[in-house]
Every structure is written in C-alpha cells, then in structure tokens.
Amino acid sequence: MTSTTPFPPGFLWGGATAANQIEGAYDQGGKGLSIQDVMPKGIAAPPTQEPTPDNLKLEAIDFYHRYADDIALFAEMGFKVFRFSIAWSRIFPLGDEAEPNEEGLAFYDRVLDELEKHGIEPLITLSHYETPLHLARTYDGWRSRKLIGFYEKYVRTVLERYGSRVTYWLTFNEINSVLHAPLLSGGIATPPEELSKGELYQAAHYELVASAAATRIAHEINPDIKVGCMLIAIPVYPLTPDPADALAVQAAQHDNYFFGDIHTRGAYPGYALRFLREQGIELDITDEDRETFTHSVDFVSFSYYMSVCQTGDPAKQAAGEGNILGGVPNPHLPASQWGWQIDPVGLRIIANDFWDRWRKPLFVVENGLGARDELVEVDGVRTVLDDYRIDYLNDHLVQLGEAIEDGVEVLGYTTWGPIDLVSASTAQMSKRYGFIYVDRHDDGSGSLERYRKKSFDWYAQVIASNGASL
Ligand code: BG6
C-alpha cells in the first residue's frame, strides 16, 4: 500500500443504479408501466404486449421495500455518493397527465431522507432507459416533439420537490445510445429495422433539446444545482495504422462526440451538420431549440466498460459482442464472460480526450464487471470470493488516477451496480456487478437476502484511504 493518492480531497466515491433494475414494485404506489415492464429479455428480443412473469424487473431486487437496509450497507462501505434514477412512470404514470402521483414523489422523499441520515450525496438520473410505456405506444417516444414538453413538466416537478436537497443531476442516461437502441434509450416503439437514419437523428435532437431544457429549469430553480449530461464512453482505436482506419475512427467518434459538443458548446458542430447534409437528413430544428441549446451542462458524466477498434475495410467489419455502439474487437484485449472487452487504459485515454475537448469536470458514473458469482461459505459466513471483480475495478481506478495526474478534473466515481441488479441488455440476474450479492436467480427464484462479497471490504478500504490503497 502506498500512502499517496491522486484522488483529490472530497472525491465522490460511490455506486450507481437505475430504478427499473433495482426497485421492482412495478405496479405499486400508483406507478404506471414503463417500457422495461414489457422487456423481459432486455434488448435481446422484442417487447411483449403485457408484463409477463418471466420479466425479472417487475420485482428486481425489491429496493422499493428494502432501500433503507441497502443504503445502510452502502454507508457501511463509506459511500460519499449514490447514483439512482427516478422512475418517470412513478411520478407521471402515463407520462402526459396534468398532475403527478404524490405516492411516487413521497417514495423518493424517503430515499433521500435515508441518504441524508448517512451523509451520502444523491446523484439523480432523470431518465434511465425507463420511458413511460404510454409515451412509447402513443407518441412513439422521442420521435415526437411532444415528449420535450412532457419531460420538462416531469423535470420541473421533481426539481421543485427535491432541488433544495439534491445538488447533482443527470438528464438522460447514455444519451448517445438512442441511435443504436431506439426502444431502450428513446422509448421508440417502432421496431429498429423500420426506422430511417433521419428518424433516429431527429429523436436524438429532441432529446438533446429536452436535456438542455432540463439544465435551464434546474438552474432557474436553484442556481447551485449541477447538471451533467451522461454519455456511453467507448474509446475507438484504429485496427491498423492505415489512414482509412484512422478516418473510420474519427467518423465513429464524431457520432458520439456531437452529443457532448452540443451539451457543452451549445450548438451542432460543423462535422455533424456536414454528415446530416450528406445523408440527406433535414432535421426539424427551431430557433427556440437553438436558444435552449445555449444552456450548457456543468459537468460531463459517462459510463465506461470497454473500448473497440474501427476499420475502413468492409471485409474486416465483424461486430464485437455486447457492445451496443458497434465496433470491431481488439486482438490485444481479454473479454468478460459476456464478451465485453476489458481495457483499463482506455479509461485514462477517454478521460483525457473528454477533458481536453470540453474542459468540463468529469464524473465516471458507471464502471464495473458483470460476472457469474458463486456464493460460498467462509468461516460460517456466506460470501463471494470475487477477486476478478476487485482486479477489474482496481486496474480501472489506477488508470483513472493516472488521468487525474495528467490534469483531468474528476468529481467522482460510481461503480455500476454496487448491489447485484437485473442487467439492462440481457435482463439477467446472473450478470452480477455488486459488492453485495442478492439471492435471486434467472428463473426468478431466491430469497432476496443480501450477502457481502469479498469486494465489499476492498471497496470500503479504497474509499477510506481515498484511493491510496489501490
Ligand atoms: C449501461 C447502462 O449501459 O450499462 C446500465 O446504463 C447497464 O443500465 C450497464 O446495466 C451494464 O449493462 P448490462 O447490460 O450488463 O446491465
């Protein structure tokens, strides 16, 4: 153990979740259905008509009833921050009604009370892959401009309610994924194969306007609030030194960077306008949209799991596993049990890139290893010996420390799924990320009991030493 640490004092260590992956209680407390309630296989299969018993998210890990105990476990690890999302359909069950659901609002009051009790800072995602189902079915989600108004109303409602006690807010989870996972990310009910590129970029535009509007509303309500955008960060490397590969890298990066450019600089960058023009895409952009864009974010947050390669050679364009943004596998990197390529150095690279490009403080709001865990008994105590998870997180944090040494400003780091939860892409329980094991399985069986894994103590030590124990 070294005694020095690159992590600044006050660094926000913690964990991140999403309502639909932990809460359960899908039809309690006045909640309406969300798209997730009809996605029993995640994005691996089309949605169902009605909620079906094989959908693990309907009960998830029952955080709705167990939040106080779970937050106490986070506090035991020394969490400084806890990222969670508000289920939009708990507040506006349909999404387009006039009045919010008080019972839904009261639930998050209680969650915030609990966090406050333990001195844990909340970090709230306003929309995390859980658009109200009614908005998806009636308006085709973010393909409709009307969603901006519904979202603004929802945002104003929760900001007025919690804005005096919550400093950090995120507008849309992984906003750049709307181009790749239209239902999950954009609440778009039309099957992906029936959507044109123009329709996807239009949906992205409406979300970007709504995101900037959320920033405006938050600052109106409380100027001390810090609003962040949230991006999937996937560093892209050229498969070979061929300039055609480097150009393919740049094109792939542009398709993601324009989301951050708009959020931080308040306008479409030239390369994006050229792309749209050359694709024959004419977006519905109003002067009011342009004005709204000027409300830029206070910080940039992102998820980081993997990097990919790109090539200009169509013959080599094999897609990697599990990566919704596409890309070619990297021959130099190992992969997780789900085929996600593991690249700690990529975190240092992308953090430097984002900082150099946008000069906004960064927040790593997701990073972690989804793995199959085995519950064992050690000295009469049930646990998981998850050294593989400790190694993964340790290596990534060392690289984040390197980025900080490089001069990158980083506000905090929240691991994905500090407690086991239902996975987003495959809707499985067996893809576990947590420091805390939850006894629930892919067939829905299990007691929902919680057990501390080996990584639980490891993370507690990292936090207590502010990263010096890495
Ligand atoms: C991110 C999402 O893309 O990755 C989370 O924001 C998700 O919701 C996480 O859970 C990990 O992906 P998965 O598919 O392993 O759950």
UniProtKB/TrEMBL annotation:
PROSITE patterns: GLYCOSYL_HYDROL_F1_1, GLYCOSYL_HYDROL_F1_2. One of its GO terms (cellular component) is cytosol. One of its GO terms (molecular function) is beta-glucosidase activity. Pfam families: Glyco_hydro_1. GO terms for biological process: carbohydrate catabolic process. Gene3D superfamilies: Glycosidases. The keyword NADP does not apply. The active site is at E366 (nucleophile). Keywords: Glycosidase, Hydrolase. It comes from the Bacteria. Belongs to the glycosyl hydrolase 1 family. This is 6-phospho-beta-glucosidase. It comes from Cellulomonas soli.
